[in-house]
Amino acid sequence: MSQLWEMIFQSEFLFSVIRITAPILFAALGAAIAERAGLTNMGLEGMMMISALFGTLTSYWTQSWIIGVLCALLVGLVLSLMVGFFALKLKTDIILAGIAVNMLGSGGTIFLLYMFTGMRGNTGALVSENILIPTVHIPLIQDIPVLGDILSGHSVLTYLAFLFVLLMWVLLYKTPVGLSIRAVGENEHAAESVGIKVRRIQYTALAISGSLAGLGGAFMSMYYSQGWNSGMVAGRGFIALAAQAMGQGEPVGTMLSSLLFGLAQALRTKVSALQGASSYLVSVIPYVATVLGLVIYAAATIRRVKKARRTKHVAAPVEEKE
Amino acid sequence: MKDRRLMLFEVARGTAAILLALLVATIFIFLCSDEPMTALRYLLIGPIIKDSGGFNTMSFYTILAAMIPTIFTGLATCVMFSAGQFNLASEGGAMAGGFVAALCGIYIQMNTGLHAVVCVVIAAIVCGLIMLIPALLKVKLGASEMVTSLMLNYIIMYIVLHFLNYNFADRSKGSTQTYPFAETAQIPALVPGGSKLSWGFVVALVFVVIIALFMYRTRWGYAIRMIGINKSFASYSGMKVGGVIVLSQVIGGLLSGLGGSIEVLGRYTTFLWKELPGYGWTGITIAILAKNNPIFVPFAAFFIAYLNKGCSLMATYSDVPAEMIDIIQAAIFLFFAAEQFLARYRQKIVVRNTQADLAKLETVKGGETQ
User: Fold this and answer.
1) DSSP code of A133?
2) Dist CA A94 CA A97 (whole Å)
3) What percent of chain B has pLDDT over 70?
4) Which of the following CATH numbers is that of domain B63-318: 3.30.70, 1.10.3470, 1.10.150, 3.10.620?
5) What is the mean pLDDT of residues B59-84?
6) Would you state the pLDDT for residue B1?
7) What is the per-residue pLDDT across A220-266, written as a single tens digit (0 to 9) for each?
8) Is the full-model pTM beyond 0.90?
C-alpha cells in the first residue's frame, strides 16, 4: 500500500493522469455540447474508433500528422452529421443511430482497414515517428521544478483538449450561438417560437460534438497508442457520456469529472503493476468510479432540490429526468 | 381494411430497409473484393444451400442453434425498450448468466433433468438481481440507466474474468477455462450431430410465447407498454411508474441471464468466454427489427443468425472480412428504426383511407336523407 502512495505522489503519475484524461475530455466535451442542445450523442465511441483509423491512415498516406488530425476531425464531423440526418430528418431514435455508429466503429473499422490496406486488426506496421502528434515543451513552465514535469511535454492535442474547455464555456455563455444551443436544449418549441432555427442549431451542436470526438480519436491512434488497433478506444466514448452526466453539461464540471476518470484509469495502470493485485479487479476501477460518481452526483442533486423546496415553501413539481 | 393497408405498408417499408442495407453491403463487397459474385453467393444463399446445390440441413441447424441466446437477449431488449428504458446491459447479463450457470453445473450435484433447470434458474435470478442496480438508480436517483448499464457491462466482464482466472480456472488446460460441468447439467441436443442445436431452442420459443402473452395479455405488460408510450400519462392515470420501470429491467435481466446460461450449458462443456459475448448488442438489433413485439423476435433472430452465418462463410471462402456483418447491421439499424423513412407514402395511404371513409360516410348520409 505504501508503495502505491509513493507512486501516486510522483510528478510522473500526475503527468499520466493528464495524458489519459485528454481523449476522455475531448469526447466528454462532445457529449456535453450535444446534450446541451438536447441530443444524446451515443455514437462517440464509434466516432472515435473510425476517426482514429482514418487519422492514422491519412497521416501515413500524406506523411503529415496535421493532415491526419484534420482528416480525423472531418470524419468525426461527417459521422455526426450522418447521425443528425437519421435522427433529425428520418426520426431514427438518436440513441439507436448512435449505436449504429458504434457498430460501424467496432466491426466496420476492421473491415475498412482490410479494404484499404489488407491489414487485419491493427496498423502497427504503418506507424513511424514523424506521423505521430508531436509533444511540446512549454518554454517557461518546463523549468519550474515539479509543475514543469507535470504540465510540460504533452502532445499538442492534450493542450488543445484543455483549451477547448475554455472555448466551450465562451461558446455556450458568451455567444449568440451558445445561447441558441442552450435554448434549444431547454425547450425546442419555445426556442422555435422566438425565431431560433432549431434544426440548424441541432446540426451545429452535433457537428461540434463529432469534431471533438474526431480529435479524441486522433489523439488515441496518433499519440496515445501509437497506431490504430481494434480494441483501442475501450469504452472511452461511454465513459465520456458518464463524465458529461456528472458534469451536467457544464464545460468545467465535465472537465473535472473527466479528470476523475483519468485519475481512475491512471490508478489502474499503477495498481496493476503492483505484485499480487488482480489485473481484472483493477480494470474495474474506472467503471465503478463512473457509477459511483453518477450516484453521488444524483443523490446530491436530489438533496439540493429538496432543500430548495423546503426553504421556498413551495411544492414545485420536480420534473423527472430522462 | 385500412389497418391491413397500413400493415402492408409497414412490411414493405421493413423490406425496403433490409434491401437497402443489403445494397450497401453489396456496394462494399464490390469495392473490396476481387471475386464479388462468389462472396455474394456465400453471403446470401451459402448458409442453407450446399455447394453441390442441395439443401444444407446441418448448416440450417447451426443457424437455429445460433438463435438461442439472441432470442433471449432480443426478448429482454423488447421488454426494456417497450418501457422506454434504454438498458444496454443484456450483454453483461448474458455473460454473468453463463458464468453462474457454469459454476452451478460444476459445484452442485444433482439428478439429470433437474440439474440443468436449477443452474439456469439460479443464473436467471442472479442476473435479475444485477439489473436491480441500474433500475433502482434510475427510479430512486434519476441516474441514466443507459450510462450505468453500459458501465455495468464492463464491470461484469472484469469481475467474471477475475473469478475465472483466480478462483475457478482449470490449471491443467492450456487456455483459461473452468472445469467441465457435470454431465447432468448439460442441456441435451435436440437433433443428433455437431450442430449444437439443443433443447434450449424449444425453451426459447416457449419464452417467446410467454413474453408475448405477458406483454399483451397482462396488467403488468400493459403498464410497461403504456409507460413506454407516455410516462406522464401513465403516472397520472395511477400506475406505479417506478415499480414498473424496475420490473421491466428485472425481467430484462432474467431473460438475458437465461439466454447466457442456456447457451453455455447447451453449447459448451466448460465456461471459456474471455470477453463479452456480443449477444446483448445483437439483441438490440433484433428488438429493433421486431419493433419491440416479442412474436417477431424469432424471425428477426433467424434473419440475423442467417446473415452472420453468411458473413462467416463469405470470410472463409472469399476475400471479404466477416466484420461485414457490422456494416449490414448498422445500416439496418439506421433505416429500420427511421420513422420518417418513406413516410410520405404512409401519409398518402392515410389520406386515401380518410377520403374513402369520408366518401362512405357521404353515401350513408345520402341514403338516410332520401
Assistant:
1) P
2) 5
3) 98
4) 1.10.3470
5) 93
6) 47
7) 988 888 888 888 888 888 889 888 888 888 999 999 989 988 888 88
8) no
Residues 340-369 of B with CB under 8 A from A: 340-341, 343
* Residues 6 or more apart whose Cβ sits within 8 Å of residue B366: none
* Whether B88 contacts B280, CB under 8 Å: yes
DSSP annotation of B184: G
Alpha-carbon torsion angle B163, B165, B166, B170, nearest 10: 110
CB A73 within 8 A of CB A238: no
Identify which of A114, A242, A280 has the shortest CB distance to residue B158: A280
What is the average per-residue pLDDT within A264-276?
78
Contact A284 B338 (CB under 8 A): no
How far away is chain A from the Cα of B358, in angstroms, using its nearest Cα? 30
Q: How far is CA B81 from CA A46, B74, B91, B92, B248, in A?
A: 22, 10, 15, 17, 9
- Kindly indicate the confidence band of residue B295, based on its pLDDT and cuts at 50, 70 and 90: very high
Tell me: the pLDDT tens digits for B224-259? 999 988 888 888 888 888 999 999 999 999 999 999
CA distance A192 to A184: 8
Query: Using 50, 70 and 90 to split pLDDT, how confident is the model at B184?
Result: confident
Please write the tens of the pLDDT for every residue from B193-208: 777 888 899 999 999 9
Residues of B in contact with A104 (CB under 8 A): 326-327, 330
Q: Which three cell numbers stand for residue B305?
A: 443468425
Q: What is the rounded CA–CA span in Å between residue A318 and residue A306? A: 9
Residue of B nearest to A299 (CA): B141
Residue from B38, B89, B18 nearest B307 by CA: B18
Angle subtended at Cα B220 by Cα B219 and Cα B223, rounded to the nearest 5 degrees: 90
Judging contacts by C-beta atoms under 8 Å, the chain A residues touching residue B28 are 111, 115
Interface with chain B: mutation pick from A111, A117, A233, A257, highest number of B CBs within 10 Å: A111
| CA distances for A294 relative to A253, A308, B151, B160, angstroms | 13, 21, 11, 23
Please choose, from the candidates B282, B310, B328, B324, the residue with its C-alpha nearest in 3D space to the C-alpha of residue B68. B282
Per-residue cell: B141: 436517483
Instruction: Among B151, B281, B333, select the one facing A290 at the smallest CB separation.
Output: B151
Q: Would you give the DSSP letter of residue A128?
A: -
Identify the three-state secondary structure at position A245: helix
